[in-house]
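Bumping with the actual sequence this time:
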Amino acid sequence: MKKVEEIISKYWFLIICLLSFPAIRALFVSGYFGASDDMHIAWLYEIDKIIKLGQIPPRFVPDLSFGFGYPLFNFVFPLPFYIGEIFHLLGLSFVDSIKAVFLISVPLSGIFMYLLLRQFVERNLSLIGAVLYIYTPYRSVDLYVRGAIGEIVGFVFLPLIILSAAKIFAKGNFKWIGIGALSIASLVLSHNIAAYMFFPFVGFLLIIQFFLTPLKKEYITKAFLMIFLGLLTSIYFWLPALTESNLVKQDTVFNFADHFPTLLQLIRPYWGYGASVPGPYDGMSFFLGIANILLLFSGICLFIFRWKQISIQRKVFIGWVLGVITVAIFLMNYRSTIIWNNFPFLAYFQFPWRFLILTTFFIPLLLIIFDKIRINNLLLTILLLLIIISSMSYFRPQDFLGRLDNYYLNRYIPTPAASKEYLQLQEEYLRLPKAAESRPDKNYPMVFPDSGIIKVNKRSDLDVVIESNSNVESLINLNKYYFPGWKAKIDGKKMDIWAGKPFGQISFSMPAGYHKAEIYFTETTFRSLLNFASLGAFLVSLVVLSL
């Protein structure tokens, strides 16, 4: 028995990796499967292209919207695609690179949940919590039904943020400021919606801990530095995403009011691979999980029963956990509509069931209440098997389609010509530039109209030289959406450009006579300053991490 405990103590991270294998085994099947968000493969192709063009950090991609491009990574979380690009540069295909991001995220999330729980309970309970975190059914929805790469990666950083807050409260060394800052930044860059959902509750925890600690000055300094460095490290992304959101139309593809799950859907062990639809007839599952429900109810009962025996700090922390779970469940219910209608940016979550992110993370933390219960190795084995067996059947895609890169590039990349599949699909999920009256409906020439154009020299997908020799001044349109960062010169001098009609394309006036115009994409001064600020904060966080 003692030898088993020593093995668990020494090789816990390997054990978590092995226990996570049933959840990720389907990722080893060749090709991609039938997930909803399969456009991420094409987005990785785009980020690979613009990084190789020297656009760092990536913002504007050239091929979407019939080749009009889109400021995709000015608004869409980039970190999962950075990680995917590393795998691609190491030789993996785009499909396999996306799957590799999925594959490493699952065991990593379990490892960090284990480390968080070890702050409060012994190793066996921590191992149970880590496995429960991995095998919560919503994790399979993200993996094999939705293919939601941002949420999948975001689950890695949720435990690290709370662990850093706990370490700072427990007077841990300065490295936890660096770990916390990098984790905060990583969550923002992994899934901005998850970050917006999670951070108010983290802030509330930090406030509670401030009132509980006797070392208030030291604590507030560390907590502030962690938050400041984390937000500053990611400011190059989140601040332009906020300030420049007024340049695109303020609409969403989905109305949140159509996607409230019922309480029955949260506790019913239904499983499906369909879509979220209005009413209680969804094809996808919102099931909390058998083990999660049992832990939730037994944890509440034990918390009440042991109330007098629990320290004030534990009471506050567990109360905070239960509070977050309660709020998350309430916000998934249609009775919270008034909040959805009035709380800033909440409507952009689109799906109230996204708050399953919070229940998935917080329910395993209720194992802290069981800290006085001894879990021997036999009971540990039984509980782990029950958790895995009760959810393992969910962790597979509906179809192993075996599709490779060419299928997704043909489906989502409409250049040099749009495929039949793209013509049926298009990109309704991308918000149109504000100046656009309609979406492009076909592939246009790079320059239109072409009267007076002598030559178009495409130096890259984001850098074009146009030579013109017209008898009159002419209006020239370039088949790229106008967005801050596009600049132009005519005969070496700065030239004004604007968003033209009807698509919001780059438009400018070419004077009569022979002229040469250069149109290219670069960073604005504002974004460049933010890039340097983020880089500086990132380096400072690394230095603090090494202390």
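The tokens above came from a reply further down the thread. The chain has two domains: 2-392, 447-526.
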